[in-house]
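Issue 218. Parser rejects a valid record. Input:
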Amino acid sequence: MARVENQLTIVRQKRQLAEQNARLEQLNQQLLRSNQELEQFASVVSHDLQQPLTSLKAFAQLLQIECHDELREKPREYVNHIINASIRMQTMIQDLLIYCGCDTHSPNLELIDCNQLLAQILIDLRLEIDKNNATIQYDNFPKIKANHIHLTEVFQNLISNAIKYRSDDLAPSINISCQETDTNWIFCCADNGIGIESKDFENIFKIFTRLHTFKKYPGTGIGLSICKKIIESYGGKIWLESNPGVGTQFYFTFPKFK
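Output the parser choked on:
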């Protein structure tokens, strides 16, 4: 009798476990659909905002050109504000589109030579590098399997930030290194910039978060959010260490794909 009761208990537990697993799978699918719908909504809204914003900027620029001599100093200043605000908004929308498109559950992986990728990024950032008299060094990097666009976005954002948030007294000095473990590559982008307070370590990865005024450090506050989303979509993680006034080290892991 006891044996029969034990078997019945096991059957009930298996049924309950199966029901719980089915419910969990259902919730996961609902969450996946919600995330996809949210990203699709953000993408559509961003696209729809582009056209009226482009028109607004174009008409403001026409007003600036055709009526420049007729406008007094204050109205000319107002027109400049409209144009500059339109440009900032366009940049935010473009970054939002990148953010919405950078999360993929099955990215097209290819074997990438990180040395070649970084060399091209430094060419693309040449004006910014020369303007700030920045020096950038990096190790002899491996070839890894990744999506080329994704990896470019991560490195370019980290390097651009290292140049942007420079010290007033020192030219930017950036060192990018890599270590290998059994399962991951660990990259580090270290700089000698203004640094980040420990209380802001988590906040800086939130979308549109800014720690400084736009006037002092222009930008949309979405670059690190893009980095985090890309890296986590591959199963990696990103974190930082920093000393205000000394510099910052951003670390991220990238899995080894066979």
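Fixed in the parser; the record now loads. The chain has two domains: 9-101, 110-255.
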